[in-house]
């Protein structure tokens, strides 16, 4: 039996098989690859499992993990030198961003898109809480949308409290497995509950004094919606630490830089100090956004954010 992992809480996994869920454990060591992860099995994994005999509660034992088509992985915040797989086998990633309460950092957006690009996972950026913005905020949101749309990312602006906006989100998700990510308090769980009120995820307050969420969602969980559609709610992320991305390949995951491949004078150009660098020329011509180049440099310099 091959089931889909909906939820993992330490040693137990909730596995979906033909519209039934089974609580499963693992037996022995299950490892796919050489790197150290805090979780060998992630939400979205397809696992082989056996139902335990004489179990009334529908429990099972996982015997193997199918190889993953992709995954979103980040540096573990709990264990140095380890990585944490947020989810596997996803069709698209959705970043929820807000300009205030809390303010989403462009560094977070850029790091997350780099991780997704490294697996060619399409990214949409949803600007939420539009109802809270005044003129300046609305103008800034439009500037960011132009910036990211020019690079090739789909962007939409919504308020999670607007029914028509939630319908647009539903259309974006239809028939796909989508991962929702963002800082704590941006409204990830609110959006998921609005899509299907039966889901009933816990919602947190945003502290008005420090403008930060309160980390209400504590583990990733996948929810089946209608029509072969799945959505994964995740805990809020403060800083996204990249893993498995080499210095040399980093610019490949910035689509606007990837477009200039082969145009630098030196083939091993790091796009920092070399003469004849096509990327620095584009930056000076305002064709590459300063914020994006700044993010590139910060990822390059901050080794810590790659390993
Ligand atoms: N004004 C406004 N508030 C919103 C909107 N969406 C969500 N909120 C509020 O933002 C707060 C945080 O929402 P959550 O859904 O718990 O945020 P989250 O992203 O799941 O946060 P974590 O689980 O901590 O990562 C709640 O008070 C929501 O009511 C919106 O579109 N407009
Ligand atoms: Mg939440
Ligand atoms: Zn260069």
Report on the architecture of this protein.
The protein is built from seven helices and 13 strands. With 307 residues, it is an alpha/beta fold. It has three domains: 2-65, Nucleic acid-binding proteins (OB fold (Dihydrolipoamide Acetyltransferase, E2P), Beta Barrel); 83-233, P-loop containing nucleotide triphosphate hydrolases (Rossmann fold, 3-Layer(aba) Sandwich); 247-305, Ribonucleotide Reductase Protein R1, domain 1 (Orthogonal Bundle), CATH 1.10.40. It has a six-stranded mixed beta sheet with strand order 10-9-8-11-13-12, sandwiched between helices. It has a five-stranded mixed beta barrel with strand order 1-2-3-5-4. Helix 1 crosses helix 7. It is globular and about 70 Å long. The model has no long low-confidence stretch (mean pLDDT 93). Residues 264, 269, 271, 274, 277-279 line the site of zinc ion.
The CATH first-level class of the largest domain comes to Alpha Beta
Low-confidence stretches: none
> Helix count, per DSSP?
7
Task: Please give the CATH architecture of the largest domain.
Answer: 3-Layer(aba) Sandwich
Which band does the percent of strand residues land in? 15-25%
Architecture blueprint of SSEs:
Blueprint: E1 2-9, E2 12-17, E3 20-26, E4 46-51, E5 59-65, E6 71-75, E7 83-88, E8 92-97, H1 106-117, E9 123-127, H2 135-151, E10 154-157, H3 163-173, E11 177-181, H4 188-195, E12 221-225, E13 229-233, H5 255-258, H6 278-284, H7 290-301
Parallel strand pairs: 3-5, 8-9, 8-11, 9-10, 11-13
Antiparallel strand pairs: 1-2, 1-4, 2-3, 4-5, 6-7, 12-13
Helix pairs in contact: 1-7
């Amino acid at each position: 039996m091959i089931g889909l992992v909906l939820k993992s809480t330490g040693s137990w996994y909730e596995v979906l098989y033909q519209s039934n869920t089974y609580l499963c454990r693992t037996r022995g060591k299950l490892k796919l690859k050489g790197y150290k992860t805090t979780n060998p099995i992630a939400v979205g994994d397809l696992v082989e499992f056996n139902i335990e005999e004489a179990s009334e509660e529908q429990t099972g034992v996982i015997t193997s993990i199918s190889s993953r088509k992709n995954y979103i992985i980040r540096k573990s915040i709990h264990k140095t030198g380890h990585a944490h797989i947020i989810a596997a086998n996803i069709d698209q990633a959705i970043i929820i961003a807000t300009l205030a309460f809390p303010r989403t950092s462009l560094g977070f957006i850029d790091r997350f898109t780099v991780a997704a690009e490294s697996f060619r996972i399409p990214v949409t950026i949803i600007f939420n809480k539009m109802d809270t913005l005044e003129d300046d905020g609305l103008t800034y949101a439009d500037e960011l949308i132009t910036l990211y749309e020019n690079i090739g990312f789909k962007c939409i602006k919504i308020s999670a409290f607007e029914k028509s906006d939630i319908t647009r989100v539903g259309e974006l998700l239809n028939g796909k497995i989508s991962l929702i990510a963002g800082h704590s308090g941006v409204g990830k769980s609110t959006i998921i509950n609005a899509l299907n009120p039966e889901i009933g995820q816990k919602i947190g307050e945003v502290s008005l004094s420090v403008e930060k969420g309160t980390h209400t969602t504590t583990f990733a969980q996948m929810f089946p919606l209608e029509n072969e559609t799945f959505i994964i709610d995740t805990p809020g992320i403060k800083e996204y630490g990249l893993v498995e991305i080499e210095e040399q390949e980093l610019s490949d995951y910035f689509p606007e830089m990837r477009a200039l491949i082969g145009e630098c004078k030196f083939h091993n150009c790091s796009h920092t100090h070399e003469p004849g660098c096509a990327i620095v020329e584009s930056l000076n011509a305002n064709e590459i956004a300063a914020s994006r180049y700044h993010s590139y440099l910060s990822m390059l310099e901050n080794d810590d954010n790659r390993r």
